[in-house]
């Protein structure tokens, strides 16, 4: 076959890509879905793109820089969006779409990124002497690899490194071939500007490629001078860094001042090896649809790619450098330590596997180039590798094939491909027919993997069910607050707002939709967040805070909301009178529900307003002692900040207030609900009777669920003595008098009595542990979680207070595979269900899905209030941080509250060193204190994006106190003269002011931006000069 011209091969790639993308992604036209994921797609990616669209159309490029009050409490636009759009060249193309077609633009840009990833690999592959067929196959395999399919609908901007890595390798390859270093400099610049995270991963990948390329030069006996090669590589790296500095330097500074730097999570989330279920899921995820193995190991490579890897490794002496690289990638993908290192020393995420895609496709091209020279040894190796793969799938599934039926297509195509290659001569296939068959199998394989991932017919509960219907994201963005945001936008002055807890039926907000509604929503959900906000939330024990959402909704706490100026609160209309609300917030308006398919709140929205919300900037005449503040709990720290400011700056002539807590710790008794715990033979009888009745009802087709005594009568025990009394009424003698009881208990009696005694001991130990307060939540030997009730000794003390549950010294007993097996065994014993070896084996199969990662949630109910907290498991790769204490807001109420009910799920048990119920008075005294602070506000306050001005007046020295998140980018002038800023209240901008009347001006500039501008200018001069010099030298040589 004649060598194709460059134009022809690019045209052929474009045609083939178009055909494949229409077939694979055409499923979305049939299902009516967009590429927007209901998770981060709706919460982060789409709202950010909408905001970016506005920035591009209003004052671009200056609109991309500086401060924005729309980003939660306020943040830098450039550095906050750097992880998503500002460094992504494709994101800027959204500007060409009409505003009412942004969602369509979102979808089309995903396809464009996919195309460019394949195009970039094709450009890279053209430097080698691979056959055109090999280049096309390698480029398409690279484009439609499982990783790309997965991120295209989960995190589309993660396609960018799939474009950049081939271009970086292309630039490195040119240097090793003695050509210009300018393409590498440009690729480095785009990489560094795109995203610091991508830059880190791609830097490692580029180093690996350069090392492999250098090693190959020695293997080929054509060694390149080390220092000369290094110099040729340093030049483009330095120039690329300079070109990107305007974006890269501010982004790095922001990252070093982010919540992620202060994370308390262990390296690799504490893993030295992945959980067993990860390793068991790997074989099934290699050549099938992506997204199964977890920890971001998205393989889903084509069967041709798989055989290419096998071919290269089986000829490792000939391809030593590539074989070593492939081995390191494949082995490294199984290690959480390697994953954590590749992930910046944090969580064990295998996102870096994207680097492997290039080397995998290199192996594919080598393999395809040698189709005509394959030997019997090669066929034996390929058949053996395929059998081993299928065998591993069988073993990993517990010696059965319970994979989706669709997977058999991938394995069938694998053996079909080997058969065609091995038997093409025996079958009498011409070269053209053989190639056509290979192409057909290859195309079907890519389509099959795509359909396996996207089609609802193949995977009803798969990714398609998680994607939004077309138009839904746009409608949701507009109708999120049912139009209530319009009223708030019309109000004068600077204010902030928040949604109430469970506004959208979630315990906390997880969305940036408020970014675009103009209400200064305090919620922000970004990967890079101000570390001082994180430290503020940690100081006051904000239970809703995490690395990506350091503020959230402030857990609905009254004083925190007022301190941060939350003037308006959006709640579901049916929460009035049924859900406790922060003190002092009153109704000002209600609007009807504007449903958005299944994403509306269903009942309409009510706006609440607080007259106690503090202004953005005010004066504190007193300061707090840092020593005293450090010894306070989260509740008292919150209250103390309403008496004085905590400052890191000058305290000259400002009095120190001695804070006296008004909070009360209330006495209570703990009782446990043992209703569903099978700790007596009487309960076992009732359980078996109910089970038999239910089976009878199911058999008769009535479908009626029986109501048991156990389900309708609650058994609450407070002491071990209560347990003894309860058991005395359900003793063996009583049951012996019942013929029904005797019959139901006649089989398996020894094991049954042993299991009952185990539960009795569990309950007894639990009651003893909780005698002097709540210390332990536990489960029965069937895995049934016990529920608990805290009964207040003096409920009248809860009137007119905001109530809190303080949990300290949290330790967790994760649910292990052994626990799962034991629970199932005991359930069968109690139900008198046969438990043969086959059933036991099936139990172990199911148990392998138990990660034991310690994830759990606790739900706390009190009068008119539902709250709780959740601990993300160590398998979570974004926000995992082990929690050792929690402060839960049980809400404000005028009336007394007598009980607090606690339930949990996800783990075997949880222990607490202490559990306290704290009541904080909310009354006129509190309101008067807040009103006094409001009187001390800056007058003539003017708030713009980068400038805040006002007049401060006081007859004594004060602390300028703001709720502006602290950043060194804020510069202060007092009466036109520069003045020092300090941190106040842990995380906000403040300053010391002398007595008198002063003109205050705060001005913001992105830290590192000026330096970045200068370096980028220098980089442009170097780049252009080098380009002109190379052009002059080339013309001179001609």
Description:
Keywords: Membrane, Transferase, Transmembrane, Transmembrane helix. InterPro entries: Uncharacterised_YfhO (IPR018580). The chain crosses the membrane at residues 9-30, 105-124, 144-169, 181-210, 230-255, 267-287, 293-313, 320-341, 353-372, 379-399, 405-423, 435-454, 1014-1032. By secondary structure, this protein is of the alpha+beta class. It folds into four domains: 6-454, no CATH class; 480-613, no CATH class; 615-658 and 923-1007, no CATH class; 668-922, no CATH class. It contains 35 helices and 32 strands. The longest helix is centred in the first third of the chain and has 31 residues, at 226-256.
**Helix percentage:** 40-55%
End-to-end Cα distance, whole Å, is: 33 Å
Structural class label: alpha+beta
- Largest sheet, order of strands side by side? 14-13-16-22-19-20
Number of domains: 4
* Main β-sheet description: 6 strands, antiparallel
Radius of gyration: 33 Å
Mean pLDDT: 92
Number of strands: 32
Number of helices: 35
Q: Poorly predicted ranges (pLDDT <50, ≥5 residues)?
A: none
What coarse outline follows from CA principal-axis ratios? globular
Residue fraction in strands = 15-25%
Which tags fit this structure?
1038 residues, alpha+beta, 4 domains, six-stranded antiparallel beta sheet, five-stranded antiparallel beta sheet, 35 helices, 32 strands, globular
Task: Provide a concise account of the structure shown.
The chain crosses the membrane at residues 9-30, 105-124, 144-169, 181-210, 230-255, 267-287, 293-313, 320-341, 353-372, 379-399, 405-423, 435-454, 1014-1032. The chain is of the alpha+beta class and 1038 residues long.
């Amino acid at each position: 076959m004649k060598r194709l011209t460059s134009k022809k091969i690019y045209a052929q790639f474009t045609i083939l890509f178009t055909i494949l993308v229409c077939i694979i992604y055409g499923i979305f036209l049939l299902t009516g879905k967009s590429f927007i994921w209901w998770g981060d797609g709706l919460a982060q990616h789409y709202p950010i793109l909408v905001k970016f669209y506005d920035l591009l159309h209003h004052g671009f490029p200056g609109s991309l820089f500086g401060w924005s009050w729309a980003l939660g409490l306020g943040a830098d636009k450039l550095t906050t969006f750097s992880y998503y759009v500002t460094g992504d060249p494709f994101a800027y193309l959204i500007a060409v779409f009409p505003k009412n077609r942004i969602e369509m633009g979102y979808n089309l840009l995903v396809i464009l990124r996919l195309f460019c990833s394949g195009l970039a690999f094709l450009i890279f592959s053209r430097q080698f002497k691979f056959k055109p067929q090999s280049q096309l196959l390698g480029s398409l395999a690279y484009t439609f690899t499982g990783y790309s399919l997965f991120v295209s609908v989960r995190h589309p901007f993660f396609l960018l490194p799939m474009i950049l890595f081939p271009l970086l390798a292309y630039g490195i390859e040119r240097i090793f071939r003695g050509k210009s270093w300018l393409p590498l400099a440009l690729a480095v610049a785009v990489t560094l500007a795109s995203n610091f995270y991508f830059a880190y991963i791609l830097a490692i990948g580029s180093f690996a490629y350069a090392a492999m390329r250098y090693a190959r030069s020695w293997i080929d006996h054509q060694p390149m001078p080390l220092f000369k090669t290094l110099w040729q590589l340093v030049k483009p790296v330095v120039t690329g860094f300079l070109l990107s500095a305007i974006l890269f330097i501010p982004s790095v500074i922001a990252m070093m001042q982010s919540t992620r730097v202060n994370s308390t999570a262990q390296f690799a989330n504490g893993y030295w090896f992945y959980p067993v279920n990860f390793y068991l899921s790997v074989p099934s995820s290699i050549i099938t649809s992506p997204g199964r193995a977890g920890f971001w190991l998205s393989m889903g490579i084509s069967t041709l790619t798989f055989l290419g890897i096998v071919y290269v490794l089986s000829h490792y002496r000939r391809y030593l450098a590539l074989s070593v690289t492939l081995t390191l990638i494949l082995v490294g993908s199984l290690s959480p330590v390697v994953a954590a290192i590749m992930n910046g020393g944090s969580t064990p995420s295998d996102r870096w596997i994207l680097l492997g895609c290039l080397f995998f496709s290199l192996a594919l091209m080598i393999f395809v180039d040698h189709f005509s020279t394959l030997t019997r040894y090669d066929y034996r190796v390929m058949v053996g590798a395929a059998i081993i793969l299928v065998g591993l799938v069988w073993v990993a599934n517990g010696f059965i094939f319970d994979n989706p039926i669709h997977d058999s297509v991938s394995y069938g195509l694998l053996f079909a491909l080997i058969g065609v290659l091995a038997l093409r001569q025996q079958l009498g296939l011409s070269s053209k027919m053989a190639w056509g068959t290979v192409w057909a199998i290859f195309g079907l394989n890519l389509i099959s993997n795509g359909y396996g991932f996207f089609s609802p017919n193949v995977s009803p509960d798969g990714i398609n069910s998680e994607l939004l219907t077309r138009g839904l994201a746009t409608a949701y963005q507009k109708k999120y607050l049912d139009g209530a945001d319009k009223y708030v936008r019309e109000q004068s002055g600077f204010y902030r707002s928040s949604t109430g807890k469970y506004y959208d039926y979630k315990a906390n907000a997880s969305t940036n939709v408020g970014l675009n509604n103009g209400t200064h929503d305090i919620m922000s959900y970004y990967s890079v967040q101000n570390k001082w906000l994180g430290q503020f939330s940690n100081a006051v024990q904000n239970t809703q805070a995490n690395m990506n959402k350091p503020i959230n909704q402030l857990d609905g706490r009254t004083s925190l909301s007022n301190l941060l100026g939350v003037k308006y609160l959006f709640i579901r209309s049916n929460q009035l009178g049924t859900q406790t609300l922060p003190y002092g917030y009153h109704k000002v308006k209600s609007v009807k529900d504007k449903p958005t398919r299944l994403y509306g709140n269903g009942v309409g929205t009510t706006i609440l307003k607080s007259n106690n919300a503090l202004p953005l900037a005010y004066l504190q005449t007193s300061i707090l002692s840092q020593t005293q503040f450090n010894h306070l709990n989260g509740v008292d720290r919150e209250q103390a900040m309403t008496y004085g400011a905590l400052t890191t700056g000058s305290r000259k002539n400002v009095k120190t207030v001695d804070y006296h807590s008004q909070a009360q710790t209330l006495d209570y008794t703990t009782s446990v609900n043992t209703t569903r715990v099978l700790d007596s033979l009487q309960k076992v009888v009732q359980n078996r009777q109910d089970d038999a009745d239910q089976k009878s009802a199911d058999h008769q087709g009535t479908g009626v669920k029986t109501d048991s005594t156990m389900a309708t009568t609650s058994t609450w025990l407070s002491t071990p003595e209560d347990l003894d009394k309860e058991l005395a009424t359900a003793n063996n003698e009583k049951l012996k008098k019942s013929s029904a009881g005797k019959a139901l208990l006649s089989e398996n009696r020894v094991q049954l009595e042993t299991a009952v005694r185990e539960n009795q001991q569990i309950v007894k130990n639990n009651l003893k542990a909780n005698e002097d307060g709540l210390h332990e939540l536990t489960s029965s030997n069937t895995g049934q979680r016990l529920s608990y009730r805290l009964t207040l000794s003096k409920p009248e003390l809860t009137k007119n207070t905001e109530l809190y549950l303080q949990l300290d010294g949290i330790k967790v007993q994760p649910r292990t595979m052994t626990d799962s097996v034991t629970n199932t065994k005991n359930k069968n014993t109690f139900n008198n269900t046969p438990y043969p070896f086959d059933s036991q084996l099936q139990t172990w199969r199911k148990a392998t899905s138990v990660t034991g990662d310690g994830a759990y949630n606790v739900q706390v109910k009190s009068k008119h209030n539902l709250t709780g907290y959740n601990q993300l498991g160590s398998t979570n790769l974004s926000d995992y941080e082990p929690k050792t204490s929690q402060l839960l807001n049980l809400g404000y109420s005028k009336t007394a509250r007598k009980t607090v009910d606690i339930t949990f799920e996800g783990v075997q048990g949880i222990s607490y060193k202490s559990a306290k119920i704290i009541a904080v008075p909310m009354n006129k005294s509190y309101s008067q204190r807040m009103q006094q602070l409001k009187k001390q506000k800056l007058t003539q306050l003017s708030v713009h994006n980068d400038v805040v001005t006002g007049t401060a007046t006081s007859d004594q020295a004060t602390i300028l106190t703001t709720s502006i998140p602290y950043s060194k980018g804020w510069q202060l002038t007092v009466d036109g003269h520069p003045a020092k800023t300090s941190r106040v209240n842990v995380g906000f901008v403040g300053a010391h002011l002398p007595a008198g009347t002063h003109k205050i001006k705060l001005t913001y500039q992105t830290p590192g931006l000026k330096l970045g501008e200068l370096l980028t200018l220098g980089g442009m001069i170097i780049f252009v000069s080098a380009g002109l010099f190379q052009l002059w030298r080339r013309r001179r040589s001609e």
